Amino acid sequence: MKNKFKLSIGLMVAALAFTSCNNSSSSKGALGSSIAEKVYIAPGEHDSHYAFLSGGYSGNLLVYGLPSGRMFKEIPVFSQFPTNGYGYSEETKPMLETSYGFIPWDDSHHPDISQTNGELDGRWIFINGNNTPRIARISLTTFETEEIIEVPNSAGNHSSSFITENTEYVVAGTRFSVPVPQRDMPINEYKGNFKGALSFISVDPDHGHMDIKFQVLMPGFNYDLSHPGRGKSHGWFFFTTYNTEEANSLLEVNASQNDKDFIAAINWKKIEEYVNNGGGTMMPANYAHNLYDEATHTGTSTMKKEVRVVNPSEVPGAVYFLPTPKSPHGVDVDPSGEYIVGNGKLSANLTVHSFTKMLDAIEKERFDGEAYGIPILNFEDILAGSVEQAGLGPLHTEFDGQGNGYTTFFISSEVVKWKLGTWEVLDRKPTYYSVGHLTIPGGNSRKPFGKYMFAMNKITKDRYLPVGPEMEHSAQLYDISGDKMELLLDFPTHGEPHYAAAIPAEIIKGNSKKFYKLAENEHPRKATTGAETKVVREGKNVHVYMTMIRSHFNPDNIEGVKVGDKVFFHVTNLEQDFDVPHGFAVIGANNAELLIGPGQTRTLTWEPKQVGVWPFYCTDFCSALHQEMQGYVRVSPADSDIELSWSLGE
């Protein structure tokens, strides 16, 4: 009995210990804190937010869901994209034309969503090409690139693309100042001779079509990032500068000498009025304007030959410099438009300027000298406050709409939450590792949606399974709905995202196009019925008017093609159902396959080099008879007299 009693007591103690251990574990673990539940999206359910991340050196734009962190789509913008044939099809090749010729790559950095009255409206998203200066507009109905405009007189189109609060303008700054106009000159004569062009690109309110309204030719500093004024500061735009030393070599030393660089404040309303009254000078320029027509499913490229430039000295009171310590990267404006945050990479503190004080200093001419004729405001007169010793290497700030700012610190690898007005640090959370930008849905607008924040990190190291010496980059999602930030999720990102824009899904998803109506297809070489299918020879060019539908091509047998011909397959997808694309590929094509949306027409060019019978097929699994969706092209010798013929089911 004693042994049984001791055994019972032992089992009870063990059970209590086990229960206690379990309670401790569940209260501290992920399941106990319900973190997993906060990011879990059940099968068939949808994320609450879209997030659009720049693809960095992929040249594209990535679409993610929040809070799941799942990637839904990669939208090709500045890069050829074999997944769907963008930049390879005859219809989309013009989108990648520039004054330098066909450029099938770029470095995309900063997306920004269109706004109405300072609030995200979900019509378009804009993104910059940094390497070959360009701005693109993507439709958030079709999630396709609709327009790309090249930016002349610019180099390193970094401080873009950011838009004014009614999408009047999308703005593009220049990171690398250059001679304007370009010419052969010694590099060591940089100082005083190089210029930084700040481009204001108007946006048509109905169609979104872009046009360069004017460029402000600024001193030859490096213009790093920018943001528009909003609310009370609407009508102004703010650009950070570094290298106010105007160094041209070893910038890590020579561009870090000054205790303060500048935020350039541009009164674009004043300059707009000046330009509308005939001000400015038309300068010869050569730049491409590429526009995609949804009705014809075709892009066109037009070369433009001049641009209007404005010297700041021509418009007194339009441009001022705000001294800001030290080598600032981001400049960010809070939802009210009062506070202008300068994120000085080499500064111990986070500097915040007051828009109201700025106007007062301008009115009272409280200047601390000038640079190239542009007044420099007195630092103490415009300072709203400083967030003291917040972290190391501040880069970028966004806002939650509850009076709080969130700033990334690259060197100390953290996000810091602080209070507008009191400038006190409220919370800090580590990131993994070397964080760049962060995004709060609507955080760059008058109406932030402050539930989530995610940080985009440059180094991944131990966060994911190793895949060789280079890892995909990392994003980390935080819940910011409470007093303290809570890390919810790591998810990998493609390319090198620099910045992102996010928006509640309900603003966009109901407007998403499901398919293209065949009745509205105005492609000049479409075939929307079997009677319209044909093969036509025009000299050595052979045009195939082809249809596709589950699960055959029409025609599926073609003869009479010769070595040396150029064959254009104009393929129309006859499906009128959501999410039923078809693919098209032919052996020996030296470009890419096509992915053709329902109701859409795309053209693949094929130049047969060898005699034979060559298959073509559907690349996108579309039905149980997908494997049967194929055809043949007979290629005869160049001197053959075989006539063109085509057939289906014979």
From TrEMBL:
Signal sequence interval, chain numbering: 1-22
Main localization, broad class: other
Residues forming coiled coils: none
Any matching Pfam family: nos_propeller
Keywords carried by this UniProt record: Copper, Metal-binding, Oxidoreductase, Signal
E.C. designation(s): 1.7.2.4
Keyword Oxidoreductase belongs to the record: yes
Protein name (record): Sec-dependent nitrous-oxide reductase
Organism this protein belongs to: Bizionia argentinensis JUB59
Classification of source organism: Bacteria, Pseudomonadati, Bacteroidota, Flavobacteriia, Flavobacteriales
